[in-house]
Amino acid sequence: MSIIEADGLTKTYRVAQKKEGVLGALRGLYRREYREVRAVERIHFRIEPGEMVAFLGPNGAGKTTTLKMLSGLIYPTAGQARVLGYVPWERADAFRRQFALVMGQKNQLWWDLPAADSFQLLREIYAIPPTEFKSTLDELTGLLGVEKLTRQAVRELSLGERMKMELIAALLHRPRLLLLDEPTIGLDVVAQGMIQKCLRDYHVRRGVTTLLTSHYMRDVEALCDRVIVINHGHMVYDGPLSRIVERFSETKLIRLQFEADAPEDLNRFGEVVRLDGPFADVKVGRSQVAAVLAAVLDRHAVADVSVEEPPLEEVIARVFEEAHAGHDAA
Amino acid sequence: MGILSGFTRYLRLLGGLAVYTLNRELAFRGNFLVKVSVEVIWLGILIAFYRVVFARTSTVAGWNEPQYLFFVGCYFALNGLIEMLFLENCNEFAELVRTGDLDGLLLKPIDEQFLITCRRIDWGTAPNVLMGSIVMVVALVNAGWHPDPLRIATFLVTFACGTAIAYGFMLMLTSISVWMVRNQSLMEMWWLFSSLARYPKEIFSGPWGEPLGVFFTYCVPILVVVNVPANAMVRVLDGPMVALTITATVLLLWASRRFFQHALRSYRSASS
Amino acid sequence: MTPLETLETQDSAEAGSTALPPQHRYAKYLAIFRVSLAERMTYRGDFFLATIFRFLPMVTTILLWQAIYEGAGKMQSEMAGFRYRDMIAYLLLTHISRMFSSMPNLAGGIARDVREGTLKRYLLQPMDMIGYLLAYRVAHKAAYIVTSFIPYALLFFVCRGFFDGLPDPATLGAYAISLILAFLVGFFFEASVGMVGFWFLEVTSLLYIVMTVNFFISGQMLPLDLLPEPWAGLLKFLPFQYMAYFPAAVFLGKIQGTALWFYLLGELLWAVFFMVLARVLFRLGLRRYSAFGG
Description:
The complex is a heterotrimer of chains A (330), B (272) and C (294).
Chain A: E1 4-17, H1 21-30, E2 33-47, E3 52-56, H2 63-70, E4 78-83, H3 93-96, E5 99-103, H4 115-126, H5 130-144, H6 159-171, E6 177-181, H7 189-206, E7 209-213, H8 217-223, E8 226-231, E9 234-240, H9 241-248, E10 251-258, E11 271-276, E12 279-285, H10 289-299, E13 302-308, H11 312-329
Parallel strand pairs in A: 3-7, 3-8, 5-6, 6-7
Antiparallel strand pairs in A: 1-2, 1-4, 8-9, 10-12, 10-13, 11-12
Chain B: H1 3-27, H2 29-54, E1 59-60, E2 63-64, H3 65-99, H4 102-106, H5 112-118, H6 126-142, H7 149-176, H8 186-194, H9 209-219, H10 224-234, H11 239-265
Antiparallel strand pairs in B: 1-2
Helix pairs in contact in B: 2-3, 2-6, 3-6, 3-7, 3-10, 7-8, 7-10, 7-11
Chain C: H1 10-19, H2 22-40, H3 44-54, H4 56-71, E1 78-79, E2 82-83, H5 84-101, H6 106-116, H7 120-124, H8 129-147, H9 149-158, H10 169-195, H11 203-217, H12 231-237, H13 245-251, H14 257-291
Helix pairs in contact in C: 2-8, 4-5, 5-10, 5-13, 6-10, 10-13, 10-14
């Protein structure tokens, strides 16, 4: 059985339009105009046990809205979903006991109390047996290296430490499904790496199914094999991370190092990205790589050559742009 | 899970929440003291008003001086109980909706209404219950009251019912903030609405007062909240009125819960 | 508590504001006024519900006093110079007084600005903080009065039986002056309380106490004349009566002749007193704020 089944999930919001100025506000008192915003449109996907999947998309693409529907926080306008076998928005206790949602910008810990107190309260709320609670807590604090910080008031912790506490709070009840919304937002590179490592370790250890949204490609590259790309509420890609580049990028990057200075006429093969002494990088259509390489090697003395995929981040950015342009045209 | 074990679980949770809020409150002692002094001043004002009025008359709407004092004490204690248990939680609800922090609460495997309305105990208003009780005792002594088990039992039951009815109304008011995101004045709205319960219902007389009194007794039973327990203790023990109060409690708790759940369905969860 | 951030000297801000030609300076406050007014009217749901609810206590008040006068057997005579009708008229009129003199969130807002360091936005922009707050408040009051005009007009129309018609023009003039001064007393009083935030971080609590006491001693619960001496005399000497009791009593013609002039002068003096106090506290507070390294 799939852990998540989403069939045609759709969410439309009605947003009141506010008018400018005093007169507008006065009119707004009595009559309002609304605009329909389609946050998510007919999304289909399945997630199997043990998978670690990333939800990619620019801001406002509908990632968070989808996560919120899957966790039962909001009702969809149309469509079906089953999560862990439950309809999420019925919010059955048994359902809520089995998953966790961590939002990078929200905190569920009590600000003025030590994290340990919040953990105790969660133990009561989730009715976790004391021995299980203790072993899970020890395991998690060990994994994240924060054994000494749980007695400190949460407001005195750094952002990274706080995020770790949030993670512990989310994992205390050993959820079968973990939903992460921008788990590393606002963190520095070191803290980001720490959180990624913890998530990976935890995933290996417990095999918990994980769905995460992020717009840091580093998170995604570090954690997920499968990626779902969503833009303007539409799903535009679902598949392995490695195939995204093949699918959306028509070019490859040929990096050349010549014996002498690089020739000036490289731009007839493709877009010259860098030209610096003997070094030159050229972007070339996928199908022409072999022909271009042959031509260059034939005419010039080349010291070194390599062929690379363009950086993932660039490709993704283009995917978003294209979808955007398509959307605007429609 | 059996009903009993479920009940004890919620009771334990409530105890846990009470302890944590007390810890938090003690971290800000100054604030706590101020809250208590505001309440003492407020009780002082109510009593000053009562003294000024009874300096010029011996009866108000059929309530004599000690009876009326008992009413004041009963109102103060009941209102204190409501404020201690629910008011701050309900008041925060609009803010939870606005910021989207409600998400965290909705995800917990526990009754949403319980978690939202009983999350924090406002210890600053806990002394009100005590102060109100002292006023009630003083009034009973002034009235030369003789202990009567039936009256005491009825008083306790209807006092609990009154609290529940007020809670039901507050929950409905709270639910509205799902649609009106900036319902920041719930505290004020509640104050205005509950002002109806602050005086004996016998003041509702005259050509338009009487229908209004009937309306607020039978249709929107806010008038029974303080009146019925106070009446049961120091004036007439009115059987049908007590029965009405109990029925209203059950109906209102049910209706307000349905309304609250309906409101939650419209929750949009502020996009971050 | 949040450490206060570094603060630019206030000189540059002030220099900017004096350099502007005067009409420009007013245009600026006018702009603040307009923006605030629009913001204020955006939340309609709140507003309608609040208006309906606001009249509920009036209903119980009318009924309660009826019961009190009936209980005392004075339905046809008076208590401390107030007939039953006067009493209700008085209590209705205190709402009008409060419409002018109450300043929700003013002191709390100032204290928050100090505590969270947002105060410096006033210091960096070429404008005077108290002036800004005054413009903002006038806008809010204007919006509130405009939007509540219909419901209040309706209320007074329904309750017209409690009034003996409009007072003579001279009294009406004095009433208008007393209301404007009530606004100023209320504004500068609360601003002064807010300035205490420079010294004590938790002003909100102080404010709660002040508000609670004010509810009674300003005469919102009953006319001060009903209180026994020496209380009645004492309270009429304090500034609080101007925020509720005084304008209402003027409208009802309870204060006339020399007494009227005397109390109006008193109201003016209190307004000036609190205006100066707010300024002085602001200056001293700023010095302290900057001395702290901001």
